[in-house]
């Protein structure tokens, strides 16, 4: 496989227009930086990096779309937010108190949709930013949902399963007025799992007096989960990688891949990339990473992680730290852990040709500019990791109609939706001479703004 960027050779001819030949994902020299908000809608000085980034991304899309300030403000402002206190009686009798949040950023296209995160970094701004990303993500893949997100500021590694169940049930009770299958539907995110979703579903159902599987997605199959949801985010990452490589006339077979994060997204991505014939040369978790230029034996690594809880110590590769992993010379780098890992310090070191964002918000605005200037194609989170919410949507539809699709049907529908969303974003990127991120944002933001206008909420 060539390591040259030759995207211009492989354009989707159906979608071409008369704009100058431009590689999807590369930025137009005329475009101003997107990080600053427009005058009159300044990013609050107190905004955290994720929230400032999310507002900056929206400001960039609004500028391209030429929307006026009132509409910009509507799109920037979360519809509903709830902050809750979540007390926990620990197994040893002590009491601890956690902060919990649920934010519905936008509900103009349908109910709020988005994950529940358990992580010590969770705060109001982070959840706000993630909820806004969900709004654009659901719109990019054309789901009838708005965007929402929830979180509890807890490190799940420090608590027993019984304690996490109590935290989940108390959090669910506290945010109960906001959620429901027609209002706001949760799913797993960092630090939560299908078991967490079963507890949310049970707590909600008990409060209503009957079983309501549609209040969550990403739940176990035994209580109405969908085939294919557990692997959907990762499979979506692989689908868009295949599409991005096809744009430059290349195939995933033989491509070298480095993956940061070996949780629900990263581990399945490693397996699926390997099944597709890619060479997974590096992986990591929060304790460290592994590198083997000849390729890591992923099934053996999965056994090692199941036995030890970490990738660290696996014998078939050399140790590598997380920063070094980001700087490896590979075809594809998949950040699939926390946000902000590609910033003004690490972005200059990136030698990957494609960054495919499995995580939400892994690239800061500064890093985006640095990567674009280096010619690195960034497939943005709101497209790259949308496979999870796509199959969540299929799960919700199945739960609501109580009729189940087989795995082939789900995988085919997921593949179709991911490849068509990529084609649409790439065509917009080429036509307007903007990055794939700006193109995805333009599509998502425009669909949400149209919903506001058509509904008359914004006459
Ligand atoms: N799950 C889903 O369906 C979706 C998830 N996402 C996004 O993908 C990302 C990962 O989510 P998910 O896989 O569900 O989360 P998990 O909690 O399952 O896994 C997170 C992984 O990231 C690792 N990690 C945590 N901190 C660091 C760090 N500082 N450096 C390197 N690795 C680290 C963890 O390491 P360790 O194993 O050692 O704890 C773990 O391997 C998040 O940004 C999430 O929002 C996006 C769309 C859908
Ligand atoms: O499956 C879902 O509903 C959303 C998953 C999620 O939180 C995300 O895509 O970031």
UniProtKB/TrEMBL annotation:
Domain of life: Bacteria
Binding site for NAD(+): 233
Coiled coil residues, start to end: none
Entry-linked InterPro entries: Aminoacid_DH-like_N_sf (IPR046346), Glu/Leu/Phe/Val/Trp_DH (IPR006095), Glu/Leu/Phe/Val/Trp_DH_C (IPR006096), Glu/Leu/Phe/Val/Trp_DH_dimer (IPR006097), Glu/Leu/Phe/Val_DH_AS (IPR033524), Glu_DH (IPR014362), NAD(P)-bd_dom_sf (IPR036291), NAD_bind_Glu_DH (IPR033922)
GO MF annotations in UniProt: glutamate dehydrogenase (NAD+) activity; nucleotide binding
Residue span, Glutamate/phenylalanine/leucine/valine/L-tryptophan dehydrogenase C-terminal domain: 226-456
CDD domains hit by this protein: NAD_bind_1_Glu_DH
Region listing for Disordered, in residue ranges: 1-38
Active site per database record: 149 (proton donor)
Protein name (record): Glutamate dehydrogenase
Gene Ontology biological process terms in this record: L-glutamate catabolic process
SUPFAM superfamilies reported in the protein's UniProt record: Aminoacid dehydrogenase-like, N-terminal domain, NAD(P)-binding Rossmann-fold domains
Positions bound to substrate: 113, 137, 392
Residues of the site described as Important for catalysis: 189
Similarity comment: family membership: Belongs to the Glu/Leu/Phe/Val dehydrogenases family.
Pfam families given in the database record: ELFV_dehydrog, ELFV_dehydrog_N
Organism from which the protein derives: Sanguibacter keddieii (strain ATCC 51767 / DSM 10542 / NCFB 3025 / ST-74)
Keywords, alphabetical: NAD, Nucleotide-binding, Oxidoreductase
The keyword Heme is assigned to this record: no
